[in-house]
Structure formats: C-alpha cells, structure tokens
Amino acid sequence: MSNEKYEFFKVIQEYLAKAARVVSLDPAVETMLSQPKTEVIVHFPVKMDTGEIKLFKGYRIQHSNILGPFKGGIRYHENVTLDDTKALASMMTWKCALMRLPYGGAKGGIKFNPRAHSTGELQRITRRFTHALGSNIGPDYDIPAPDVGTNSQMMAWIMDTYMNTVGHVNKQANRGVVTGKPVASGGTLGREKATGQGVVHCITEWCRESRFNLEGSTYVVQGFGNVGAHAATILSRFGASLTAVGDHSGYLKSPEGFNPHKLMEWVKQKGSVAGYPSGQAISREEFFATKCDIFVPAALEGQIGPAEARAMECRLVAEGANGPCTPEGERVLLDRGIAVIPDVLANAGGVTVSYYEWVQNKRSESWTLEEVDAKLETAMKRSYGEVVNFARERDVDLRIAAYGLALDRLQNVYRERDIFP
Ligand code: NAD
User: Fold this and answer.
1) Do 252 and 230 share a structural domain?
2) Alpha carbons 347 and 180: distance in angstroms, whole number
3) Are residue 237 and residue 161 in the same domain, yes or no?
C-alpha cells in the first residue's frame, strides 16, 4: 500500500457510478445516493484518569433511510475521518438493500486510539459521545453497532446512557437503540461471531461452486479482531489450516498451522498477536506473499493495492473488512484469476444478525442460537446466489453485481414513493 491517502469515499462513489450504468439507474437517484443525507460532527470533553480534560471529535454519518432506520457501526480508531465514515455509511446502505433488511445506512466513529485509554476512560468517552449524539440516534431512527475498536461492552454503555436520558416512560422500549450488545443486556446469541460466520458461508458457497475442498486447505487472515478471529475459528472446523496471521502489531507465520482458538484467547489477554509462542515473525511483504488457498482481509480499508495483489498467491479473497482491496488491487487480482467476494456481501452477516437482535428486542423475545444460525445461513446463501447469478447475467464482477442488486432495489422504492414534496 502506498503512503498516499486512500480516497475511500471517492472509490465508493466510483463503484456507485459504475453499477448505476449497469442497472440504468435514474440519474436523479444516483445523485441522491452519491452523498449522505446527514453528517453529524460533535466535539465533546471527557475527564481523563489524571483529571485532565480532553476534547474528542465524533462523527455519525447517516447516508440513507429510504428502506428503514439508519444502521451501521461505530469505529474507534486514530485514523477515523469524515470521508472514510461517509464511505462506510454508503456501503451500509448497499449492504442492507442487498440483504433485504429494512434498514438504511449509517456509520459513526471517534478519532482516537482506544488502546491508549483505561476502561474507565473508554466508558466515559462512550457515554459522553452518546450524550452528544442525543436524539440523532434512536431505536427507530438510527441504530449503531460495533465496528473496529468497539465491542459489546461499549454497546451496553451506549444503550444504558441512551435509556437513562430519554425519560422513564419509554426507557424499556429503547434497548434496541444499539445492536451487538452483550446477551444479558438484550443482545442476541450468535451476534458476536455473525460477521465471521457470514464470511465463512460465502467461502463455503464459493468452494461448492468451484468444486474446491476446504479440508486440508490453507488460509491466512489479516486482522485478528471480531471478524478475523471468528472467521478463523469457524474455517478451522472445516479442516482448513491458518498458516499466517497479522494485525496492527505485525505478522506471524506457522507453516504447520495456528490453533485459532488459542490465538484468540492470546489476543483477548494481550491485545494483539505479537509474541504468540508458536508463530515466527514475518514482514508485511512476506505475509501478503504467503502461498495459501484463501485470503481473508479483516482489518482496515485500502490494504490490498496493486503491489500486494501482484504478490498474493491464493485462489480466493473473501473481504471480511470493508474496502480492503483498492480498485487497482482488485483489478490485478481478477486479472490473475483470483476470485474476490466483495465486502458488501461477504461481511453482511453482522448487520443481518443485528437485525435479528433488533427484532427480538422489539418483540421481547430470545431466539435460540440454532434459530439465529439457521436464518443467517439462509440469508447469506440466498444473497450469495443472487449476486453470482446477477454477475453472470450482466457479465460484471461480483462487487458491481452486489452494488447493482442493491441499487435496483433502492430505485424501485424511489419509483414508488417519488421524492418529497
Ligand atoms: P476489531 O477492532 O475487532 O479488529 C480489527 C483488527 O484489525 C485488529 O486485529 C487490529 O489489530 C487489526 N488492525 C488494525 N489496524 C491494522 C493495520 N494497520 N494493519 C493490520 N491490522 C490492523 O474490528 P472488527 O470489528 O473485526 O472489524 C474489522 C473489519 O471488518 C473492518 O473493516 C470493519 O468495518 C469490518 N466489519 C466489521 C463488522 C462487525 O460486525 N464487527 C461487520 C462488518 C464489517
């Protein structure tokens, strides 16, 4: 990856324009979808453990709510920017439309490094951000969820802060203001692993179509957080071996294969893969050049540019992360015959199970893990099939097919409703 700033939002707008041509999208609809509906930026003070007051910058970008309430994760990372958050919010609109979920798209974040803060500080930052967002979020308006740097604990803090600021009468009806909560606080079984699980459903569908046997195959994972670690543990159940892994701390290889469960425990305790006993440290270049069958990027956007794509020795890239391939990187992969399952399809399992959580909150129900898993499997396989068929019929790649299907559905709604006034 070059050091130039990766213009993520511009890239998403280019995919939109390309897919719009494929589905003959009404130019007015394209114009409306080319920018978010609302961009909320807040600055809020938080008291640090030392007593010092620090000012934080937070975003909530609401791209579209034509299909339902705004929906999308909250990211805590030092590189969070307005433009990247706009890109991620737009992608949520396509993802929800593709998965036929009654949601629009949104994304939020705070520009800071959560690893540099104590649990107490993280709690105060999260609560103060929630308070600063105020009525810009709500269970029928805009529903955040975890993303990079956030987890179920932070969702519980958001829920609690929101519930305690909306008044007593509606308090209990407001649990659904966030998804990805801990199960005891109104979360659903199966949400924690849902994104990784969805990635694996796409991989197994690709294997079935390509007559490729996962048993005895190898895979590598970049980013060993929620998405990467769960995708790895689930893939290992199919007899596939994790031979290289990496995160913000660096990269490791293990030709005989890592135990992803033990590695996950290590990361939970130590905060990164660094120092994991059975791994040999390798460079980022060596990591990307690792020969394997399946490559799962599950870290950040813009990781696979042309240089990485030329070095990669795999059959399939399953995008657990949002935007991990640059357009140039993807072009190289496809030209080299490496298949790419695009983010808006591959990582849609997270928002799909978030929807199941929200429905359970609305109905005061608790579904079994089997129910959640079965519904997710059906939803992922149906969408995978639809994307593959669309790509074949229109002779486009899977990313443009996924965008095309989503845009077609959005356009139908605009046709029926027209615009106000
Ligand atoms: P996470 O915070 O749990 O994990 C992120 C991982 O990326 C960590 O292992 C971190 O060390 C690694 N990382 C960070 N910076 C890196 C760098 N410069 N180089 C290499 N690795 C780096 O986040 P997550 O929830 O697993 O999200 C990962 C990706 O998946 C993101 O693109 C996110 O938008 C996407 N995603 C997440 C969900 C979800 O449900 N959590 C759903 C859909 C998509």
Assistant:
1) yes
2) 15
3) no
Q: Which of 409, 408, 383, 413 is nearest to 398 (CA)?
A: 383
CATH number for the domain harbouring residue 245: 3.40.50.720
Of 143, 202, 245, 247, the one to substitute when testing ligand 1's pocket (max ligand atoms within 8 A of C-beta) is 247
Are residue 167 and residue 310 in the same domain, yes or no? no
Q: How many residues does the chain have?
A: 421
User: How far apart are the CA of 365 and the centre of ligand 1, in A?
Assistant: 30
For residues 179 and 202, state if they share a domain: no
Pocket test for ligand 1, best of 8, 86, 99, 147 (most atoms within 8 A of CB): 147
Report the number of distinct structural domains present in the chain.
2
Q: Which residues line ligand 1 (CB under 6 A)?
A: 146-149, 195, 222-228, 246-248, 272, 298-300, 320-322, 347, 350
Among 179, 140, 189, CA closest to 159: 179
- pLDDT digits 0-9 by tens, 347-397: 999 999 999 999 999 999 999 999 999 999 999 999 999 999 999 999 999
User: Of the candidates 159, 185, 211, which is a domain's last residue?
Assistant: 185
pTM, to two decimals? 0.98
Kindly list the distances between the CA atom of residue 58 and the CA atoms of 42, 52, 112, 173, in Å, as whole numbers in the listed order.
5, 19, 9, 26
